[in-house]
Amino acid sequence: MELVVSLAIGVLTGSGIWLLLRSRTFQVIIGLSLLSYAVNLFIFSTGGLRTGAAAILARGQPGTLGEFTDPVPQALVLTAIVIGFATTALLLVVLLAARGLTGTDQVDGREREG
Amino acid sequence: MTGWADHLIIAPIILPMLTGAGMILAGDGRRGVTVALGLASTLSLLALSVALLSVADTTGVRIYRLGDWPALFGIVLVLDRLSAMMLALSSALGLASFVFSLGRRHAPGALFHPLLQLQFMGLNGAFLAGDLFNLFVFFEVMLAASYGMALHGSGRARVLAGLHYVVINLLASLLFLIGVSVVYGIAGTLNMADLATRMGEVAVEDRALLEAGLAVMGIAFLVKAAMWPLGFWLPGTYAAATAPAAAILSILSKVGIYAVLRLWSLLFSEDSGDSAGFGGTALLIGGLLTIAYGSAAILGAQSLRRLAGASVMVSSGTLLATIGTGHSAVTGGALLYLASSVLAIAAFFLLIELVERGREAGADVLAVTREAFGTGDSEPVEAHEVGVAIPGTLALLGLSFIACALLLAGLPPLSGFLAKFAILAPLLGPPDAVVSVTSWVLMAALILSGLATVVAMLRAGIEAFWTSPASTAARVGLAEIVPIGLLLALCAALTVAAGPAVDYMRATAEALHAPSGYVRSVLTPPAPVPKGGG
């Protein structure tokens, strides 16, 4: 499972960075979204990958991370998802405004010659 | 949690949040309500921050536990001398920017005032946050508001600069998150004070990863602080923003500096075992490069706004390099420099708007490159005036310009000089001490960047006031010149009251470099509350 998750994070990050370096605003925003998925998965994985473990303590169990999944990264990733969602929406508005004002979707507002 | 006074610590976050929400509810149409709410909020923020400043000066570290949970389980806000000073700076800038926006010729557009309030909520929260994740959350609140502020007024140049600003900051936030999660994965805590105690106990094989995580987080802060080569976004964005927005943005870059100073001094102190002093050299070298780049940018600046943006970079570079030396006395000087330069740059941004008014678009472009400067976005100038116009405008503007130049270049008699002196004197050390090469380089960089600023400001001043004075007599409202006067008066106050100010900064720096007091105050469990019968 570790291998699959780390491969997924790696592929998402790689594609995200590739798209981020492209010159059209839409590619940039998709790149940022992919990167934020990668980061969210990464945060989630820092709590340790476990399947079938309880999220909260059951009665009578010792309070160690061996017995239950760490809730803190889950709380962090929820917050990060919400914030990422809001900022991406804001970026979309800026992107549309830039498209409207410059008449092109290049990030520097100039259509490339040729 | 004994008296109401303890709850003052959270007020700088709650107050602007409620005010901002109230303004949105009141709607854009009711300008009177918005202005009254905003004035009440900014004035009480200023009063609050002065009160907190005196609290911090007498008691050192005060903490506020949300819900009274012990620090490791709940959220804590921490007030110490550094955060109190930053709060005071942000509320002073807030008042100036708010008053300035009232007197602007074109009434500020939709939602400017609520955005300003939310900006303060984010700023104040970032200064008070006691753990990494809340630092992240308040950073995002602050940035989201600043996107709105930077884009405020719209127009092609602003939207393009804003697009770059938003993308770069989103990327920096992702780096911040990666750093936070690596730190949590290894140290198992996000509380800064708790993290500081665990730094020394990290296993040898995990230490490199933890340091890498913190370094990734540091890059996110340094993007905000505009360290070379992470700061290319800054001059364009600041030049495109409207004057009151740019004045606020000038403290935003210092939030990055604040975070670096706070975390670096806390986590890589002498108690942190093998990690002590990690990254200090990088800060020093990065700071020096930023000074060099900023000085070149100042000399090459073709408009006043670019010049101001470049001086933000010089001030960031100076701060990073001096923090990187790791001497508490030098840090004390750097803090004085921070206060002085934030106020001066904000005043300068506001002043530029007034100086440029009435001049033809692009008039401040120097000689040869006049035609290379794009003139797409001159603001529509409306005929009616808001507020009382004052006489002798040009003289006042000129005097303010001279004051800004003196402050930014670090020439006597104003506080810019005192601050640079307070940095340079401890670098030289006692008369018989051997001065290291790094100290010489740093001193040379500080003095040369001052020289570059003097040259550029002289040139810009001659161009603006003597060779091509305003074609139509600029009419400046009282509400526009007063905030500039206020900011410059604060700098003058720093000069006159230099003794107490330097003492305060020195105490701040000493507390930063001996973080055990901070750690102890945060981690001390709350006194048990006697259970009431019921």
**Assigned CATH class of chain A:** Mainly Alpha
The global form of chain B is globular
Proportion in β-strands of chain B: under 5%
* Uncertain stretches of 5 or more adjacent residues of chain A: none
Bulk shape of chain A: elongated
C-alpha-based Rg of chain A, rounded: 19 Å
CATH architecture label of chain A: Orthogonal Bundle
Give the averaged pLDDT of chain A, no decimals. Answer: 84
Give the topology string of chain A: H per helix, E per strand. HHH
Helix content of chain A: 55-70%
Word description of this protein:
The complex is a heterodimer of chains A (114) and B (534). Chain A is an all-alpha fold. Helices cover 63% and strands 0% of the residues of chain A. Chain A has a single domain (2-51, 69-102), classed as Helix Hairpins (Orthogonal Bundle). Chain A has three helices and no strands. In chain A, helix 1 (2-20) runs antiparallel to helix 2 and helix 2 packs antiparallel against helix 3 (71-102). The model of chain A has no long low-confidence stretch (mean pLDDT 84). With 534 residues, chain B is an all-alpha fold. In chain B, helix 4 packs parallel to helix 10 (243-267). Chain B is globular. The chains are: A mainly alpha (114), B mainly alpha (534). The interface between A and B is medium-sized, with 31 and 29 residues.
